Amino acid sequence: MKSRFTRRLMPLLLPFGAWALLLVAGCDDAGPPPQGSGEGPGHRAQQLGVSPEQEFELGQQAYRHVLRENRDRVLPAEDRQVRRVRAIVGKIVRAAGMKPLQREINLHLQGYRFEWEANVIEDRQINAFCLPGGKIIVYTGILRVAKDDDQLATVLGHEIAHALAHHSNERITRDQSGQVSGLAAKAYDRAQESEADHIGLFLMTFAGYDPDEAVRFWERMRRTHQGANRPPEFLSDHPSDERRIEDMQKWAPKAKAAKRQFDAGHIAPAPDGSE
Question: What are the residue ranges in the chain where pLDDT is below 50?
Fold first, then answer.
């Protein structure tokens, strides 16, 4: 059974219009959890007001809802596309477990629970997402854009980065505070998306995929979006395709250099002597 807290906040987890499916009437008289702040990814300030247990519960509930609503379109485990997605997810998750990479990105994973799982839904929409706790949904529409495993790793690395960086938790905390709205909220969301692009690029590189293909993926996405009536970047909650291409071109050499240093064993030890 969903807690009142879960019912009230779960709509904030899902992308685009999917959250509307989860609205439940009623109010939560328990109030929001206490907020905490600290250094997040990239050593920026990050406020997380949802406890690790609540974050995991929210992801589980949302994931079950999506699978239930799409039960007739969820591809079977033996499907080639499902096996492909799960193989790439496995490699990226293993890369995310590398302590030097966690330190470099400044990911805080201790105390958080992840149960990684990926499913593919037959749908033309060009989309994928990863919920808190590691539950991943991929729509077949995006598999037609990502022409090879490196490009699909671009997508999956980005989505997994959102979960590792606790972006849903942070967004819920922001929305509960009521302190950011309008264009400022759009800018906040774009910053999270760029952060996930950056983290995801390093994750895919350390997982053995070619970060140069991230540039080519976003070039393909730009062609896919040609002719679409899209808002200017400052009115959008996502960076423009052009911005993402520029960023990937800038970050890819750095990711490859970091991977070469890692492979050569040129990694500074952690302050506590751990790996």
Answer: 1-12, 16-35, 269, 273-274
Residue-level pLDDT at 25: 23
In the beta sheet, which residues pair with residue 74?
Answer: 121
* Gyration radius (Cα) of the chain, Å: 18
Q: How far apart are CA 275 and CA 272, in angstroms?
A: 9
The 10s digit of each residue's pLDDT in 117-157 is: 999 999 999 999 999 999 999 999 999 999 999 999 999 99
Q: Annotate 117-180 with DSSP letters as a single string.
A: EEEEE--SS--EEEETTTEEEEEHHHHTT--SHHHHHHHHHHHHHHHHTTHHHHHHHHHHHT--
Which pLDDT value is given to residue 209?
A: 98
* 90, part of any domain: yes
Give me the sheet containing 117-121, strands edge to edge: 117-121, 135-139, 128-131
Within-domain flag for 28: no
DSSP label at 18?
G
Q: Catalytic residue numbers? A: 159
pLDDT for 36 equals 52
213 within a domain of the structure (yes/no): yes
Judge whether 210 lies within some domain: yes
The CA–CA distances, whole Å, from 100 to 85, 110, 203, 253 equal 25, 15, 12, 18
Question: What is the count of structural domains for the chain?
Answer: 1
The letter for the amino acid at 235 is L
Q: Which domain holds residue 230?
A: 4-13+54-261
- pLDDT attached to residue 271: 54
d(CA 75, CA 250): 37
Distance CA 243, CA 70 (A): 33
